[in-house]
Automatic annotation (TrEMBL):
Its cofactor is pyridoxal 5'-phosphate. It comes from Halovivax ruber (strain DSM 18193 / JCM 13892 / XH-70). Homodimer. This is Aspartate/tyrosine/aromatic aminotransferase. Belongs to the class-I pyridoxal-phosphate-dependent aminotransferase family.
Length: 366
């Protein structure tokens, strides 16, 4: 079986091996600080008794699951802590497909490039629907594509790579489409703290047995290396998800989960607002420089990516390597996110050098 292998690690390695100064805008690794309370939680954990260094409950430590459940308005038994949002999405898609209610997975185009590989790995068949130039998804397009063979509809809001944030009406209609076709809406909401539009709506706002919400603290707490994520399942789907999680991972990191719990309990909302303000400033700097150079771009409403387009520079791996070698800026090829993004390049705004990066790109392609 051949899997669709994402290009992220190839591009990151190529940029790391390049000669000269390269501004890294490849992957969504926040360059800002995690909450101080998270660091304090790690320091505290180092002095715990030895029994706290052993296996945690497979589904995650109960205090963190209780904290998540209280914040999201669900039962604690519905929450499974996972190895980042990546495993959360894997478990959600697996539960959708193994119900015997179809083998098709509806994905958007552009698409976050790990979803297709998971679909193949789980024995599903991808069916792509266009999300449009701005990344917004028209529910009528999804409704037309859905059928009795649809097992899952997988969406990401705020969206990577487009920055689109789906309005409440779209989210509610996507849940209704899943219900009508006995499918599962898998809503990946890992960028929920980076909604710049004020319009984000979680799929949890709809009480339904046909939706699974996935998330992680990788982005919201700037800890992509901790791998603490979670999935919220309908009650009838959660037990088998816990079993699969146990068989694949046994359990997650107990110290990381404890530190996240401390951060959730003690971090002021001002921490998140300051990070959104930083991101808004970077969006303005980057897109302003692109606009001055006459480049096309997609203004993001959330997440922390910008799609940019330069005449004569298609969104291919070859173009990305050329820009690394000759312009000193590393981004991702739009082709990695689907056919509709093949003329675009995606840049992650996770460096204080975003304006310099845009200036370098503009100067090189001029």
């Amino acid at each position: 079986m051949e899997y669709e292998t994402p290009l992220f690690f190839h591009v990151m390695g190529y940029a790391a091996d390049a000669e000269g100064d390269v501004i890294d805008m490849v992957s969504g690794n926040p360059d800002w600080e995690p909450p101080e309370s998270l660091r304090e939680g790690l320091r505290e954990y180092a002095d715990f008794d030895a029994d706290r260094f052993q296996y945690p409950p497979s589904e995650g430590i109960r205090p963190l699951r209780e904290e998540i459940a209280a914040r999201r308005g669900v039962g604690v038994s519905q929450v499974v802590l996972t190895n980042g949002a990546g495993e959360a999405n894997y478990l959600a898609m697996a539960r959708a497909l193994e119900r015997g209610a179809g083998s098709e997975v509806i994905l958007t185009d552009p698409v976050y490039s790990y979803y297709p590989g998971k679909t193949t790995m789980l024995g599903g068949r991808a069916h792509y629907v266009s999300a449009g130039a701005d990344g917004q998804l028209d529910p009528s397009v999804v409704r037309a594509a859905a059928s009795e063979d649809t097992a899952a509809i997988v969406v990401n809001t705020p969206n990577n790579p487009t920055g689109a944030v789906y309005p409440e009406a779209t989210v509610h209609e996507l849940v209704e489409i899943a219900e009508t076709n006995d499918a599962i809406l898998v809503s990946d909401e890992v960028y929920d703290h980076y909604d710049l539009s004020g319009t984000f709506t979680s799929a949890l706002s709809v009480d339904s047995a046909h939706r699974i919400v996935t998330n992680a603290f990788s982005k919201s707490l700037a800890i992509t290396g901790f791998r603490v994520g979670y999935a919220i399942f309908p009650p009838h789907l959660v037990d088998d998800a816990k079993s699969r999680h146990m068989l694949v991972n046994v359990a997650g990191s107990r110290p990381a989960q404890y530190a996240v719990l401390r951060a959730l309990q003690e971090t002021d909302p001002a921490y998140h607002e300051a990070n959104r303000d930083l991101l808004r400033e970077r969006v303005d700097l980057f897109t302003g420089a692109l606009e001055s150079a006459g480049a096309d771009y997609v203004e993001p409403d959330g997440a922390f990516y910008v799609l940019a387009r330069f005449d004569g520079y298609p969104g291919t791996l070859e173009t990305v390597e050329q820009l690394i070698d000759q312009a000193g800026v590393a981004g991702m090829p739009g082709s990695a996110f689907g056919e509709s993004a093949s003329s675009w390049l995606r840049f992650a705004l996770v460096t204080p050098r975003v304006e310099e990066a845009a200036d370098r790109l503009a100067e090189y392609v001029a």
